[in-house]
Design a protein that fits this description.
It is a single chain. With 396 residues, this protein is of the alpha+beta class. The protein folds into three domains: 3-53, 2-Layer Sandwich (Alpha-Beta Plaits), CATH 3.30.70.20; 54-185 and 255-335; 187-253 and 355-389, no CATH class. Helix content is 37%, strand content 18%. The protein has helices spanning 11-15, 45-48, 51-54, 73-78, 84-94, 118-121, 137-146, 157-167, 187-201, 213-216, 241-252, 282-285, 304-313, 324-329, 348-354, 356-364, 370-383, 385-394, and strands at 21-25, 31-35, 64-70, 98-104, 110-115, 151-155, 174-179, 204-209, 224-228, 234-237, 274-278, 297-301, 317-321. The protein has an eight-stranded mixed β-sheet with strand order 5-4-6-7-11-12-3-13, sandwiched between helices. The chain has a three-stranded antiparallel β-sheet with strand order 8-9-10, covered by helices on one side. Strands 1-2 form a two-stranded antiparallel sheet. The longest helix is centred in the middle third of the chain and has 15 residues, at 187-201. It is globular, with a radius of gyration of 21 Å. The mean pLDDT is 93.
Length: 396
Amino acid sequence: MKENMCSECNACIQICTHQAIQLKVNQEGFAYPEIDSEKCINCNLCNKVCPMQNGDKTKSVNIKTLAVQTLDNKTLQKSSSGGVFSLIALYVLDQGGIVYGAAWDSNMQLHHIGAETEKDLEKLRGSKYVHSDIGNSFREIKEHLKQGRIVYFTGTPCQVSALKLFLRKPYDNLITSDLICHGTPSQKLFNAFLENMEKELEEKIIDYKFRDKKIAGWSCSSSSALSVKKGGKRKYHIYDKNMRAYYLAFIKGDITREDCYQCPFTTVERTGDITLADFWDIHKYHPTFPNLPDGVSLILINSNKGNNIWEQVKSKTHYQLSSLNIAVQTCNKNLYTPTTRPPERDTSYRNAFEDIVKFRDGYLNNENPRKIYLSYYKRKIRNNTLIAWIWKRTNH
């Protein structure tokens, strides 16, 4: 299969009962299906469940567009934007359901897993700019659905589309949320940055957040990591050259999977019942919305099922009705066009694997992290009532 025609959704692997398809990993760390002609019976199911070929069958038109923020400040601070995922997920768990999303394992590898408790839900929160391995999630979800259990699945629009195509029929007890997606780098490349960070720190990284509000509030450039030293002591990192460079390379589009540059899901017709995103530039369109520095979600409701779920959780939010036209005008460019493939993509992975330090430093341009540290400590002071009071008194 051509590399620009596969999103590595794993639907074809999971639908094939004859085990005729295996994933072959290329030098960049991306996997692509390879068919064993001796095992294949030409049933064509693999093509029927491919979202790159049949994604239009899973798309819905927008019903309602909203700006939303959870009223629970604790949840809001742990969320990348307005905390809507957590509200829906907690509602599903309260109904005895199960929530599927991307989570780090103990080795910092990203997989889709099912969460059945509020504690497990913590692993699914937050943006993760790495390709998530679906594994056998679709098969597991089908069994839960057949048993009558509510399932809430979140993922990139191609993953949501793949799940719907894999199931081959609609289920009333399936709820889906797709993301407005910029693209996905490979786990192998993320590992290279992570390993270099561990080497330089001489510590083991045990957690990683791409969007940590403790540092700069609601922003798109505040990665953090948690490491553990040999003696077992943990350390919180609010800046590291490797973290920063990886994020910059991602935003530029230099390390995205090839099919993302021709993504058929960067449209206002969406695959999820509810689309989750950041409402960037909300101050221009809804200036009276409260508590803007702590994050606001852009929510597209794309089905009656999605609207029914929204009705169940909206009492726990600040929200304002917006419009699809405003959503398109915000910074979510991937709502209407794929990420542009830059010339640097031709050599980015090769350069990174040949010399990760040189590749990393090429993105930093002698960047001074002072602003990041200053932002972190200012926010820490503001969030401490006593210190904030003393600060205010001594600066008058």
